[in-house]
């Protein structure tokens, strides 16, 4: 199959970037290595929220999620109680699914416990790829896997640490988002730009 055609700006992108919001996310965030614990927690929450929905649905609600979850500060989110959860269930800007909202609070508490034990969420997560992004070379969307052995191992470890909504498929989407793998198609202009990212010291 041929590479996707270039867009009006002359750049060839992964075919899922079909609207202005998705294009901006694709060009500036997706696949860029993240090593900040708060941003990593943000992506854990957002990938869990996306389960069963389109990523565009979550992107459109991202600002509302940031407001609802205190800028994704795990210390603040971990303190949310039943009254706060009840308020989130009537918040129109986010996905009002009780299990997903409760999971975000549970995962914030799990992050704090993990950081106390391991030192950082960043260091814990990136060990699953030995500190360096996996550089893939997919030519078509059909080649991109839904999960990998590393994602399965990460899912198992997170579940063992008390996290929820972290199945292997969600974990692989998370790994793609935070740059643990470079899954831009080889015909996409971002693939080459991210291919030179060096290992991060663990």
Question: How would you characterize this protein structure?
Answer:
The protein contains 11 helices and 2 strands, in the order ααααααααβααβα. The protein is mostly helical. It has a single domain (30-195), classed as Endonuclease III, domain 1. Strands 1-2 form a two-stranded parallel ribbon. Helix 2 (37-50) runs antiparallel to helix 7, helix 2 (37-50) crosses helix 10 and helix 9 (149-160) crosses helix 10. It is globular.
Tell me the Rg in angstroms.
17 Å
- Please state the average pLDDT score: 93
Strand order of the biggest β-sheet: 1-2
Structural class: mainly alpha
Note the total helix count: 11
Task: Offer a concise description of the structure.
The protein is an all-alpha fold and 202 residues long. It has helices at 20-28, 37-50, 55-60, 62-68, 74-78, 82-88, 98-118, 121-126, 149-160, 168-177, 189-195, and strands spanning 134-135, 181-182.
